[in-house]
Write a structure and sequence with these properties.
The chain has about 425 residues and is an alpha/beta fold. The protein has helices at about 30-45, 65-70, 85-90, 115-120, 145-150, 160-170, 190-200, 215-230, 245-250, 265-270, 310-325, 335, 355-370, 380, 395-410, 415-430, and strands at about 15-20, 50-55, 80, 120-125, 125, 130-135, 140, 180, 255-260, 280-285, 295-305, 385-390. Strands 3, 6, 11 and 12 form a 4-stranded mixed β-sheet that branches. A 4-stranded mixed β-sheet has the order 8-9-7-10. Strand 1, helix 1 and strand 2 form a beta-alpha-beta unit. Helix 7 packs across helix 15 (about 395-410). The structure holds the ligand OC[C@H]1O[C@H](O[C@H]2O[C@H](CO)[C@@H](O)[C@H](O)[C@H]2O)[C@H](O)[C@@H](O)[C@@H]1O. The site of the ligand OC[C@H]1O[C@H](O[C@H]2O[C@H](CO)[C@@H](O)[C@H](O)[C@H]2O)[C@H](O)[C@@H](O)[C@@H]1O has 16 residues, from helix 7 and helix 10.
Length: about 425
């Protein structure tokens, strides 16, 4: 990894240097090569800009590590954050207001970027980050396991009761297969609790954002469903306290029948965790008695470190525009990705507004170069569920909710009411403390 310092921002030759993090990790061979090739091509086109890539290992998938980096003041000039991170980035005092720098001149596709995503990085009318990826969650399932369990792989479960029935059949296959798998550590439990709660029609915080709002029948139903599957049916496997990569590792090894996630989870299963694309399909997020009332939408973007020179901000935006927001380039270079072990054709990201020029170009390229069987995502795409963003200051709340999730997944005698009450009190304390 290179230095994260920006004190060498302008060298004697008048070059502008920016450090950028979340370069893919070494195990993501093709993604890493693509990133490095993008840097080389970008620098060739912009000989006055030097992009210093910084890999922070798997930390870009681990919210507690991001929080620690922020606290340690070691963020790069242009730094990656989840859509959940604006509040903590602002609290840390490290984000630059980039409102006056961003527009069609600096990011040519800016007018096509979904305004709802810009809003996620906006506070008090000021823009602090540029969205580069987004997703919404559904039910991901292993078609091969469905078939072995005698389930219809073209008809994923639509309700939590159907998920429960299918999970029992899949776990009955034995061999350590979990019918349904769930997270409960490293803030991932809280993340999934939120999506499950949205499916019930609930919300994590009251409309004014001042109080916890999950200690109610909908929150109880979420935990009860999981407790029933885990200990009533024994259909969730015995290994719990899973974090992001743990569940995907098990999935890659063919040990997970279903889990909730975003389309790009299949990419991680294949490119990082040795799975096969043809095994995986996706349906909409189930609901309690019918379609889900809502699903969670999230994603990520890049922030700019306070104190950068205007030239550095300009250079950073130019890089983000090139690598993340231009159809046919960087993350949208589908011609390059097609022969790689990297999916083209997933219903994600949805960065550009429906009907915008950039969206049309991106969709055309995506269709022309698809290398996955897009029918595996038909049930998900054909049954859209209203998307709800993550709560403000989500990661701190998710950390609290991990305990409620791990409670029902690791203790057969867990008291759902008590777990929710404890989480509610803690979240209310967080909110009262303004953190
Ligand atoms: O650690 C939990 C967090 O993970 C989310 O991001 C991860 O899942 C995304 C969807 O599959 C994926 O796009 C991203 O690369 C992963 O790191 C999420 O966005 C966070 O808000 C969440 O707390």
């Amino acid at each position: 990894a290179c230095s994260t310092k920006s004190d060498d921002s302008a060298d004697a030759g008048g070059k502008v240097t920016i450090t950028v993090d979340c370069q893919p990790v070494g195990a993501q061979k093709e993604l890493l090569k693509n990133w490095n090739d993008d840097v080389a091509e970008f620098q060739r086109q912009n000989p006055n800009i030097v992009v210093k890539s910084v890999s922070v290992g798997e930390q870009c998938n681990n919210p507690p590590d991001f929080t620690a980096r922020l606290a340690g003041g070691t963020v790069t000039d242009v730094f990656y954050g989840y859509m959940t991170d604006l509040q903590q980035v602002l609290d840390s005092g490290q984000a630059m207001d980039i409102t006056d720098h961003v527009g069609k001149d600096s990011v040519p596709t800016w007018d096509s970027v979904d305004p709802a995503l810009k809003e996620v990085f906006t506070d008090g009318g000021k823009l602090y980050g540029v969205p580069v990826k987004n997703y919404s969650m559904g039910l991901i399932y292993n078609k091969a396991l469905f078939q072995r369990a005698g389930l219809d792989a073209a008809n994923p479960p639509k309700t939590w009761a159907e998920v429960r029935t299918a999970a029992k059949k899949i776990s009955a296959l034995g061999g350590g297969v979990a019918g349904y798998s769930e997270y409960s550590a490293g803030n991932t439990g809280g993340w999934h609790f939120t999506s499950l709660l949205y499916s019930q029609g609930g919300q994590v915080l009251s409309a004014d954002g001042k109080k916890a709002d999950f200690n109610n029948p909908m929150g109880k139903q979420v935990l009860q469903n999981l407790k029933d599957m885990r200990y009533g049916d024994n259909s969730m496997g015995s290994r719990q306290l899973l974090q992001w990569g743990d569940l995907l590792t098990n999935a890659g090894a063919g040990k997970v029948g279903m889990f909730i996630g975003a389309p790009d989870a299949t990419q991680a299963i294949v490119s990082q965790f040795q799975g096969k694309y043809q095994d995986w399909a996706m349906g909409p997020l189930p609901g309690q008695d019918g379609p889900a009332k809502a699903t969670l939408g999230g994603g990520e973007g890049y922030f700019f470190k306070k104190g950068l020179s205007p030239e550095q901000v300009k250079a950073g935006l130019k890089w983000i525009a090139y690598q993340k927001l231009t159809p046919g380039k960087g993350q949208f270079d589908y011609v390059r990705a097609k022969p790689q072990n990297y999916p083209v054709g997933l219903p994600q990201p949805l960065l550009f507004t429906n009907g915008s020029d950039a969206q049309k170009q991106e969709l055309d390229l995506r269709k022309a170069n698809a290398n996955v069987d897009t029918t595996n995502f038909t049930a998900f795409e054909a049954n859209p569920v209203p998307i709800k963003g993550e709560p403000r200051n989500a990661q701190a709340i998710y950390a609290v909710l991990d305990a409620a999730m791990s409670g029902v997944l690791t203790n057969p005698n867990a008291n759902v009411d008590a777990l929710l009450k404890t989480a509610e009190d803690k979240v209310n304390q967080l909110l009262a403390a303004g953190s």
